[in-house]
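hey m, so remember when u said the tokens were messed up on ur end? i reran from scratch. heres the input so u can diff it against urs
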Amino acid sequence: MDITKMLSGMRLNAAQPTPLYLQIANALSAKISDFTIPSGAKLPPERELARLLGVSRTTAINAYSLLEENGLVSTKIGSGTFVNTGSALSQPQPPLMPWEQLFTPGYKAPLSSIMRSIIASPTADDTISMAAGMPDPAFYPLQMIQSALDRATRSIALADFGLIATEGYLPLRRSLSAWQTRLDNPASVDQILIVSGSQQGLYLLVKSFIEPRDYVIVESPTYLGAIQLLEAAGARLLTLPPGNRIDLAMFEDYLIRYRPKLFYTMSSFKNPTGRVMDQAERQELIRLAARHRLTIIEDDPYSLLHYGAPPPPSLKQLDDYGGVIQLGTFSKILFPGLRTGWVHAAPPVINRLAQEKQFVDLHSHNLAQMIIHAALEENSLPLHLALVRREYKKRRNAMAAAIKKLCSPTMRFELPEGGLYIWGRLPTTVSPAELLRRAAPLGISFIPGDAFYAHGSASHEIRLCFATHDEDRLTEGIRRLSKALNSFSAEATVPATNAGRPII
């Protein structure tokens, strides 16, 4: 059956209040329900559907996504979109609820949706994901957590299991203050807000500081989650060009011409590149920020995951004008499920963030805060950090050796001195998105570099996480990646039999 001919006759009306993607979804739903399009049929790729109906590819993607949400189709990465089989399709389908018409306008980022699916979906035993920045569950410190939990449940008042202060569990704020002081980054209790992961801290900061059309400086590339939050808030992003150092002349020009509200940065082992600002660069940034009274958000999830010398003092440690706000998290050094991070900032900032946090969740999870407090009190973190630094260094080295052996000279990289990622640079002939499509059937995944650039800028880079799997699995993952990379080289060597003939 030629489904393409059937769909080419579909008529859309842009003048109707019903969005085009919903018109498409409703029409396809009707054809699937009455078996005009049979069970198991393959639907056209999004790009072809968009061409047939004269709509954008995003509209086609949204139509297919809605059909998938309603259980009518399934998308298989690398294969296509297929009509589901089963008894559910033999029953009359009720009209689709027009949810999208009821939602407020939202931020849409198709690539980030793809990545969320890669990260969140269960994977087969043979799948090697190098996409998510996840610590290896084998290193989750369960004995330490059990010991901390036993101590917490013996000594904590029952009332502490009820509602607590929005700013966080007071004993944890005290122990975290003491721990930060031991790390030469003093923080008083009234300068600490406990949050449900540093991502929530970043959300609260954007909510508290940013109005539509405010300017914010970001590096390029930078953390995807920051780009999404800032763009969703309507911020106008001033990007600093890629490089091993910040273009301080451009940075100062931005400060003078645009008076930005914020500068967002990761100073140590930046996600995705692994870059570290040197001390002179940090000091000059602080000098410029102090002169122009610029607020700096220093996101710091990785500084304790160093595989050689520790990074220079943080921007917060160098802050002599009170304008640096630091985000920290236990997700990368313990395990993500704790969902516990903190904000270190001036008391007026903490007070405002606490007001915003009340609208979200009143306070972060009691038990997780109690466990971390007990672990800090027992001084359990240094031993655990020594373990993960040693093991992740081995994995970094194994991935780097495999890339050099199997993917050179096609992919180049610089060895990171900390963090969880290798930032691979590809030739311009290799599309990271197409490479991901070719890699999926081989049982591997990664994050295309485009996701880490604001304004939809294209890149020829990929981010590979080396923390989640052991050395053997990482080596096998890179072997499969090299196979996908080699397919581009094979295409380049195919003789052009139609050379000189016009393309029709």
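this time it looks ok to me. Confidence is low (pLDDT under 50) at residues 120-124, 493-504. if urs says something different then somethings off w ur setup not the seq
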